[in-house]
Amino acid sequence: MRMAGGVKLFGVGFPILMPAPSHPPTRVRGGRPCVSFRDTLTMPDKHAVIDPITGFLDRRSCLHAAHRMLAAAESKALPLAALWIDLDRFRQINASFGHAAGDEVIARVAGRMRMVLPAGGHVLARMGSDEFVVMLSGEDRPVAEAFGRLLLVTIEQSLCVDELLIHPSASIGVAMLQPGDDGLSLLERADRAMGEAKRQGGGRLAMAAGEVLPGHHGTSLAREELAMEADLHAALDSGGLLLEYQPILSRDGRIEAVEALMRCTVFGRRLMPDRFISVAEKTGLIIRLGEWSLLQGARFAARLRDEGLPTKVAINVSRAQLTSPAFLPALHGALLCANISPELLELELTESLAMALDDVVQDNLRRARETGVGLAIDDFGTGFSSLSSLKDLPATKLKLDKSFIQVLPADQRALAVVKAATQMGRELGMVVVAEGVETEGQWKALEQAGVDALQGFAIARPMPEDALLTWLKLRKNT
Amino acid sequence: MTRQDDPRTPTVDGVLQQSIHDIDIPPRPTVIDRIHAEMNSDAPNLRGIAGLISRDVSLAAGLIKTANSPCFGFGRRARSVHEALTMLGLDVSCRAIAAISLRRAFPDSARYERFWHVSASVATLSGWLAQQLRVPGVRADDAYTFGLFRDCGIVILLRRFPDYQTVLARANSDREAPFTAIEQAALPTDHTVIGSLLAQNWWLPGEICMAIRHHHSLPALEAEVSPLRCPGRHLVAIAQTAEYLVQALTGGSRSEEWTKLGPACRALLKLDDGTLEAYRCAAAPLLQAVE
């Protein structure tokens, strides 16, 4: 959604909109205009600007109002509260019902907020597409908190817009004026508290802690991660996840396995795997993503078997999964639901994970291995390897990191490491795989080094299920 | 005695070896994939989706019936699939289609007629209770969907393991041990894990998937320690109360879950004896209407 006459000022995932500035942006970051809270506070306040959809103050006017209210509160020793309200899943409302319906929702929610606002010199503002601020002058914390809860309930009533039933909900952060605050830091603390409410799942209120802000970069980073988390929730709830599969070719020409790689698309945007996996790990969503992958990968293994192409499917697992008591029931659940033999599934864990085994992880891995599921150590050589841990781990496969492979065949030292690691893997009874094989030269060098199997663009890129199936059939027939 | 010490406990390998039947978890209906693809596009093509749904007469009828159900309280009635989609929105339509498709996704559904009838009864009363209780953030259609899906893992396990019926009877009659603990003593997994995997695979919302996973857990109902957020906890409590009402009104499908979870459900939903009794009386005619 875009405000009338507004320009989008922040990057993807930061749907913060403002009216077009009357003078050039004060900073340029990465070639794009970027106006911060503090910048807007220094802009001239000629006239308060009213948002046309809600009738509230716009973002910039709100910041000036905050500045003035804070000065007044401090001079009279009165409390001042800021509530930052963000509608949950608003992007989905826009995507499902269209922007006109989205505007209608914003206007109706704003109307409800106005209805319940107590009398007094309070301020209502629209800070972004689906973000609002309420400044309560002279009200103490219990009143601010109670008002926040009233807003939650008020906003959560269903709305009928053009015969569409919409169920809005909001996340609210509440901050009370503290010594040393300026208008900006008060709002920032409310915004951060709202982020916390959102992180806990939305539809709730959080009070700001009295912490020192890490500065704008920290705040922006937190917001980016928050947006990513919201995207991941949306992907999990709306079919935005997909596994692609990359074949691993054995020296004898067999397909040793296929590695499942997760892709995530939300509202047409493809998220970068490194970023969304890292956010998923931080937020605990990795467990749901991991369980989804287990079942999806197991079902694909069943499909390959049913097509007469029985092939192991390797699924990446995270530390969070392996420390969870739900890991083994979920693994068994996936095997049962897909109705496959455990030998058709392989769990891939990174070397850093493999080398930091605690008892729970080790026990889960041992019991997983006892079922017949394979265990592969991924990215081997990138961490600080502990050979004793490697000895204790019941792994069946060692995957040499691509950083050793990509410098072949020229780098003789790398080749020596590859040969030694291959020898060690063999002695430990593991299949040794080289990852990231991209050229014929690398391929030949790795064959000479005795590596058991190869994975990389030189063999095949990751492919969706149907494409991989076709690729496997073509290989079988030639 | 631990599982490993008990000679009667089947080994994991042994149990997996029992999985000889060629039965798979029901695949996600293709129409759900199509709707999600449209939801993720910039300009969802409602007419295209309506056309796809309309090719399946019972699905189309089910969706129109859902849009016209009192759960939503629309002022007007949907007369076509397109109208139903517009009134419900794509996300709610998707859940409605999942609910309509669940039972027929199992090819041998007739064998489990009684199970499906109880699930439909619990789902209907869950949706109704959500309307009566008006818990912020808990939607009647979500309560209905949760009520329908929460035990679907049981059917999958019944189809897979002939002995699961015995395990189920033991779990239903135990007044102390958690239901899933009894299942996990006999199997390497339990019906809440299977049910939540299926729900995730069918792209049901996270709250519902998590609630399915924890619906036999007492701590899940307690705010301080619950892994569930507010709507999830309430979904569990509402469906458990609905199950209690179904059992009280029909005298069938006895279990001890209300003994174990009832007090926590009542505390969460603030149900005193009088209110519960009033709901029991009011729910009776609703049950008769369950197909």
What can you see in these coordinates?
- The complex is a heterodimer of chains A (478) and B (291).
- Chain A has 478 residues and is α/β, with parallel strands linked by helices.
- Helix content of chain A is 46%, strand content 20%.
- In chain A, the strands form five sheets. Chain A has an eight-stranded mixed β-barrel, surrounded by four helices.
- Chain B is 64% helix and 0% strand.
- In chain B, helix 2 packs antiparallel against helix 3, helix 5 crosses helix 6 and helix 6 runs parallel beside helix 8.
- The longest helix of chain B is centred in the middle third of the chain and has 21 residues.
- Chain B is globular and about 55 Å long.
- Chain B starts with 11 loop residues before the first helix and ends with a helix.
- The N terminus of chain B is likely disordered.
- The chains are: A alpha/beta (478), B mainly alpha (291).
Q: Largest protein interface?
A: A-B, 53 and 57 residues
Largest sheet of chain A: 8 strands, mixed, barrel
Rg of chain A (C-alpha, Å): 28 Å
Radius of gyration of chain B over alpha carbons? 19 Å
Look at the helices and sheets of chain B and give the structural class. Answer: mainly alpha
- Detail the poorly predicted runs of chain B: 1-23
Order of helices and strands of chain B: HHHHHHHHHHHHHHHH
Quaternary state of this entry equals heterodimer
**Which outline of chain B best applies?**
globular
The chain-level mean pLDDT of chain A equals: 80
Question: Helix count of chain A, per DSSP?
Answer: 18
How much helix, percentage-wise, in residues of chain A? Answer: 40-55%
Helix content of chain B: 55-70%
Number of helices of chain B: 16
Shape of chain A: elongated
Which band does the percent of strand residues of chain B land in?
A: under 5%
Find the count of extended strands of chain A (DSSP E, 2+ residues): 20
Name the poorly predicted regions of chain A: 1-47, 211-220
